[in-house]
Amino acid sequence: LNIICATDFSHHAERAAEAAVSVAERFQVNLTLVHAVNRPAVHLLPEPMRDIWTGEANIALRKLAEKLSFRDPDVATQLLTGVPDEAVSSHVRETRPDLLVLGSLGERNTDEWIIGSTAERLADASPVPILLVRDPAPFRAWSKKNTPLRIFFAYDFDETSDLALAYLGNWAQVGAVAVSVAHVDWPPDEYSRFGIHRPMSLTSNDPQV
Fold first, then answer.
1. How many C-beta atoms surround the C-beta of residue 197 within 10 A?
2. Any idea what the Cα angle at residue 102 is, between residues 75 and 1, rounded to 5°?
């Protein structure tokens, strides 16, 4: 298992990085922090200004890695160039990590948003599993073997759900996990799927369902 954590140095991204370190520590695998420089498009800047932008980003990336590297394994860094979601997505396709970790929000700092636009685009485009983090505390506790990692799994009786459920087996092999599996149904669909012809309720399931 190799892990990449993308950061924009926001508070949310730093919390995601803390969770990524905890997961890497529990699995005893490599972790790489990546940041995409795009203020503005770096390749369009004069070379001296380009060096300033990338130099400052490299320093910030190394500082974050040093802050997180008090644990084992150490944290590597990789500076990318381009629009963040495109640059990170391209890097993920090239390196094929086993997990991509992101903060649920980026620089936007408000509880009114559940997921930021960059994270949403990466979730749509990523060819590897993604962990979106809001609170690193459960992962810290799990990595220290103090408490099981509680996972709520939404299941939909399809191949994608089966693959995702199998993926959770990797986590169960390295530490205690408590998985709750749930399915949300719509009675008309379920009645059709099971061939039920009795009168239908929209608020409760037939016993056969």
1. 7
2. 55
